[in-house]
Amino acid sequence: MGDSRHQLFQQFARDQWAGFHKGIEKEGLRVDGNGFIAQTPHPRALGSTLTHPRITTDYSESLLELITPVCDSTDAVLASLYDIHHFVHQHLGDEVFWAASMPCGLDGDDSIPIAEYGSSNIGQLKHVYRQGLAVRYGRMMQSIAGAHYNLSLPDSFWAQWQSALADEQPLQAFKSQQYFWLVRNFRRRSWLLMLLFGASPALDRSFVANVRHTLSPLDSSTWYGPEATSLRMGDLGYHNNAQASLNICFNELSTYTSTLAQAIHTPWPEYERIGTRRGDRFIQINTSILQIENEYYSAIRPKRTTHRGEKPIQALDARGVEYVEVRCLDLDPFSPVGMSAPQIDFLDLFLLDCLLSDSPKIDDQECSHLDDNFKDVVNRGRSHELSLVDGGGSTNVQDAARALLERLEPLAAKLDGLSDGDRYRQALLQQRQKLEDPSLLPSARVIDAMNGAGQGHRDWVLAKSREHQQAFRKEGLSPQVQAEFERQSAESLAEQEAMEAGDTQPFAEFLAAYLADE
Asked: Which segments constitute the Glutamate--cysteine ligase domain (predicted)?
């Protein structure tokens, strides 16, 4: 069936292919001139973090999140990301936008300010959710940054694809089914992205102060994993005992939303012991395994744009899957915006192949093997001795990676033929070169660059961040783009003020209604 799906796509004509829709959400810390996490509030010139469509914060007040619109090309989405960075760099003053996923200098939990979103009930809900993350996991995790890549295919493709497969269900049901088909294969292969794009093999010693770990010293200020690709995606980053108890099923939409809903409604004893309040102050939304769906950490999520106040599960159940969100990407510290064009093109190719390849349902045994493969590449991906579980046997990681890249060649050629270019074959070639010369892997490049500069993690990333900032500040935005960003900032502040003025319901009542609304 997998080969037949590829053969069906090979028959697509140019007028049947409208390309990909794509967007990027890029996180990054604001830091002071010494490479320490910023203690200042979100710059007012950047607008309201609650309502601005392009510039907000993630878990921490210091952790910016920049959001592109949905674009129809790699060049367009990168141009948008560059524009947002230009505007942000104008308003950071003496602060710097941190270029790496693992954080700058920290001084324990208290040094990491939790994001604030104003006094409206929605704003307070976002803040309380983050307070809950702090009491459940500690704040250190809230200082880690990454890039999320969002991809969808247009309805014109889905109609053609449904016809090619002779499928007769409603179009949206078909789309949801096919996106989960893609997700299952992504889970089987996501280890490859950690090998090719993992770029966080080292961290500042302040991140693991008083924490037991197995890292090695790079210098007096830096710990690293000699064979690691992404400490961000390892146990030092997104890991939690309560979530380890979950068995979220990615086989189809109904099981995915039902298992997530169960987690949101299943109490966890430790969280019950903490409670939801300290005095009159709310410190978590509820005492369940998950407060809300977004608390579940996974390398990929099926997504649907939500209406204000709507829960993600409600949106998915009501309107089906709209796009997939790839969440396991480290920031590329060598790129001024954390991502590059060849990387984005490869992700498109990789994700399309996940859709076109055979994708049986994942049983519990395979699920365990997939998780182990992912963890092994995160922790030891640059070891030539590492083997991955594959079916009933095991395969050397380099051999498995080469086999996956080789199978992408016909698809890359097809996509290039549909667009009269060679960008997909070039993106694929760049990844193959990393396997032939492992010193080209981002995780290896980071260690080599630190050693070459004679700098630890904090000093090297700070220097790289300043280099990017200086380049942005030398170039200006066009007057039209500048004016548009200023308009968005002003309008977002006005919108937040209007929301706060219009909220008369006490937050406790609002939260009770939110939790009761299924």
From this structure: 8-377
Q: What is the pLDDT of residues 459-478, one digit of tens each?
A: 999 999 999 999 999 998 99
CA dihedral over 239, 241, 244, 246, signed as positive or negative:
negative
Residue that wins the pLDDT comparison between 308 and 135: 135
**Residue 98 Ramachandran class (φ > 0 left, ψ -120 to 50 alpha, else beta):** beta
Mean pLDDT to the nearest integer, 498-502: 97
Distance (Å, whole) CA 82 – CA 336: 8
Asked which of 59-68, 134-143, 243-252, 254-263 is least confident by mean pLDDT, the reply is 243-252
CA distance to 11, 53, 121, 127, 310, per residue, from 511 (Å) = 52, 24, 8, 12, 13
358, 391 Cβ separation under 8 angstroms: no
Q: For the sheet with 222-224, list strands across it.
A: 202-204, 222-224, 216-219
**What would the DSSP string read from start to end of 316-364?**
HHHH---EEEEEEEPP-TTSTTS--HHHHHHHHHHHHHHHHS--PPP-H
Name the nearest CA neighbour of 215 among 445, 380, 386: 380
- The 3-class secondary structure across 407-472, one letter per residue, is HCHHHHHHHHHHHCCCHHHHHHHHHHHHHHCHHHCHHHHHHHHHHHHCCCHHHHHHHHHHHHHHHH
Asked if the model's pLDDT at residue 1 lies above 50, the reply is no
Helix or strand holding residue 288 (H, E): none
Query: Pairing state of beta strands 222-224 and 96-97?
Result: unpaired
Instruction: Give the separation between CA 337 and CA 81, rounded to whole angstroms.
Output: 7
First-residue to last-residue Cα distance in the chain: 38
* 196-229 pLDDT per residue, tens: 999 999 999 999 998 899 999 999 999 999 999 9
Tell me the pTM. 0.97
